[in-house]
Amino acid sequence: xxxxxxxxxxxxxxxxxxHSLVRADVDWPKVRRDAVARAGKARTPAETYAAIRxxxxxxxxxxxxFFDPRxxxxxxxxxxxxxxxxxxxxxxxGIGYLMLPPVPSDGVAAPYVxxxxxxxxxxxxxxxxxxxxxxxxxxxxxxxxxxxxxxxxLGDGTVGAAVxxxxxxxxxxxxxxxxxQYLDEWGSAPPLARPMPPVAxxxxxxxASAAEAVTIAFRGxxxxxxxxxxxxxxxxxxxxxxxSDGALVILTVARExxxxxxxxxxxxxxxxxxxxxRGSNHLLKVATDWLRAQGGCREAP
Length: 301
Description:
The chain folds into two domains: 3-60, no CATH class; 92-234 and 254-292, Alpha-Beta Complex (2-enoyl-CoA Hydratase, Chain A, domain 1). It has ten helices and 13 strands. The protein has helices at 3-19, 28-39, 49-58, 69-76, 110-125, 144-149, 151-154, 183-186, 210-218, 280-292, and strands at residues 65-67, 87-91, 95-99, 130-134, 157-164, 169-175, 178-179, 199-203, 224-228, 236-242, 248-258, 263-264, 272-273. A hairpin with a 4-residue loop joins strand 5 (157-164) and strand 6 (169-175). The longest helix is centred in the first third of the chain and has 17 residues, at 3-19. The protein is elongated.
């Protein structure tokens, strides 16, 4: 292996050993030996990519991954016309429905946040009494954009936390309807006319990563239930580490806890399991029926 390729591979492995959530459980000398053996006679950084990807798989955390420079650029700079935006509509019985699709990164989330807030504001103006938040098709990416889009419904306060291997915690705090660290960038969100309404969160086996964080943020919230199927089972926080050529080691660095301090591992089971085979309309009816039975919705037109 050339010195350039060797140094590049070593830098990626150093990031993993220093920051991985599971670093205490990994046989690092073996991971390094295996990675060097796989890289073989690599002459360029690009020729070590396969070894880095396999080293991340060897961590066995089910969530870490690697983006080469092209993949990293595409993931972090999605064209505006390709960005999926939140969709809202009013359902029968005065129920507001908001679908939160995935958004690749906080760097491209501003239009997403504006669209979500616009939908929430329009529905709130129509006097909805309860909300369905749908993350069934959200396979992950950025968690902060969805939380900002739905912030007025979720409510202010500490709604969860990232929990690191050393026991340190980074709280998820919503302030004025926005994750606190994004207030300057995205601004505050108008409060609801009916604060703290009942909420039904819809999940499926496709609900993964950042969408599981959104699901966790609603856990322990008053007047809230989850419906659907268990989530994908990767409720862990990833962090990107840029290598010298622009590639990214996307490394799992923390577990996720809800507002009550419960750390979630594996799939998140819904409060009400509704088999996927029953269809989306049936799931919406189950969630809507529950919302209509809650205070404030029983009298809604």
